[in-house]
Amino acid sequence: MATAPAHPGRVNEDFTGALPTAAVLVDGAGIPGADAICRHGVAWYASRLGAALLGLLARLPEHSLPALLAEAIEQVTAAHRDTCDVADPISPSATVALLRVTGVLAEHLVLGDSVVLLDRAGGAPLVVSDPREVVVARPYETALRATVEGGEEHRRLLRELRANRNRPGGFWVAKDDPQAAEEAVTGRSPVSELSGAVLLSNGASRIVDRLHLTDWPGVLTMLAAGGPAEVIDRVRRAEAQQAMAADDATITHCTDLSAALRRR
Hints:
Elements: E1 2-4, E2 14-19, E3 22-29, H1 42-59, H2 65-80, E4 93-102, E5 105-111, E6 115-120, E7 126-129, H3 132-145, H4 152-162, E8 185-190, E9 194-200, H5 202-209, H6 216-241, E10 249-255, H7 258-263
Helix pairs in contact: 1-2, 3-4, 5-6
């Protein structure tokens, strides 16, 4: 695993953790002004959600991944419903990537713009993503670039964009509604067909989809050679060269998945 905040000294709003048979990655999301809505903040939401998921994965291995995510969302929402306006469009939210080895299968879940990359032994890697937020956000990109970050117009546009969260025709993230978990992208693969799996926050997956430094097989090659920290370091160098705003970046690389079967 490796994780890095967008800038040194800034709070990292990503979370990752693992069990012998499962891995969790949570990418917290918030916009300016959210402090007035929720006193806890995005990093608190992401870490609480990630910790809840790890606990549920350990205690309830028979439950589906969407069911566990729904329960985790409910737990975290209950923890601050009485003190914060959890239903406000700009209250803290997060994207989620999960991997679990159960029986002879590796199950995955993606909600929001995190990524699960499955390293298939017999072919090209399988990229599991949820493109709905990218599609919804595309018309706003030019207008946002033309505004001052943190300014009134910038905040207005972000509020308008975030109003598309967790509604039909919009995009889905972990926030205050457990039903969002049912919108997650899920799947399963025989463990025998996988060499490994990678969970990436969108601050790390940009090495392919925004910075275009490599392709997904190239990411796997980088991970094998230098590990997750090397991938994030390359992202940071490219962001600086291209004057691109940095984002928290997190990678969890799961290898030797068959070992999880031996631990059961």
